[in-house]
């Protein structure tokens, strides 16, 4: 369609190369969760400007240990001929779960051997592998309750510590002092 009296115009075909586009994947950092919360669509909620599938790492249903964690997603466009796959990450904070460990009160008669004690807990996440030790010695679980003897027979005062560790929790050490108080004479 171009002509000129002053030129002999020759048309040479050119090549137009169309490269794949990279879709926009949007994924805002999710709000912090508490240890024991399984990942779900609340955290794994990336979106894209085109149709496709998302594969998350770690996957939905995973329970992460407490601390700063990184979530990853790989997006594969349905139209793979025109769009590139995209991988992106976000940060997630997993807060430690609250845990209460209580020693059960015990009593004894003056002069009798000092008893052992039991410890109960509230707040463990199912499946958590918890270790309890007293004065550095592991405490066994008997009928679902930790039981240990932490006293030396004949000693009036015992001082030691209860140490608890579990995945997803910061280790805790609580001092424990047991005093033997003599009963007044004739008190029975």
What descriptors fit this protein?
188 residues, mainly beta, 4-stranded mixed sheet, 14 strands
Strand content: 35-45%
Total DSSP helices:
0
Order of helices and strands: EEEEEEEEEEEEEE
Judged by helices, strands and strand pairing, the structural class is mainly beta
Helix content: under 10%
**What is the number of beta strands?**
14
Report the uncertain regions.
none
Query: Which shape, going by the Cα principal axes?
Result: rod-shaped
The rounded distance between the terminal residues' Cα atoms is 121 Å
Mean pLDDT: 79
Radius of gyration from CA coordinates: 33 Å
Q: Order of strands across the widest beta sheet?
A: 2-6-5-4
Major sheet attributes: 4 strands, mixed
Please summarize what this structure is.
The protein is mostly beta strands. Helices cover 0% and strands 38% of the residues.
């Amino acid at each position: 369609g171009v002509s000129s009296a002053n030129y002999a115009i020759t048309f040479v075909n050119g090549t137009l190369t169309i490269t794949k586009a990279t879709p926009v994947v949007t994924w805002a950092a999710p709000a912090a969760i508490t240890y024991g919360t399984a990942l779900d669509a609340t955290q794994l909620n990336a979106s894209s400007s085109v149709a496709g599938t998302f594969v998350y790492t770690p996957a939905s249903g995973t329970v992460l240990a407490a601390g700063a964690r990184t979530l990853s997603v790989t997006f594969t466009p349905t139209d793979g001929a025109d769009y590139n796959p995209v991988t992106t990450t976000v940060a997630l904070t997993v807060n430690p779960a609250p845990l209460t460990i209580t020693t059960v009160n015990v009593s004894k008669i003056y002069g009798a051997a000092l008893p052992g004690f039991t410890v109960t807990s509230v707040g463990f996440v199912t499946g958590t592998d918890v270790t309890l030790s007293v004065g550095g010695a592991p405490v066994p679980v008997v009928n679902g309750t930790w039981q240990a003897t932490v006293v030396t027979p004949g000693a009036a005062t015992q001082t030691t510590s209860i140490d608890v560790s579990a995945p997803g929790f910061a280790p805790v050490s609580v001092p424990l002092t047991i005093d033997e108080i003599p009963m007044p004479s004739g008190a029975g």
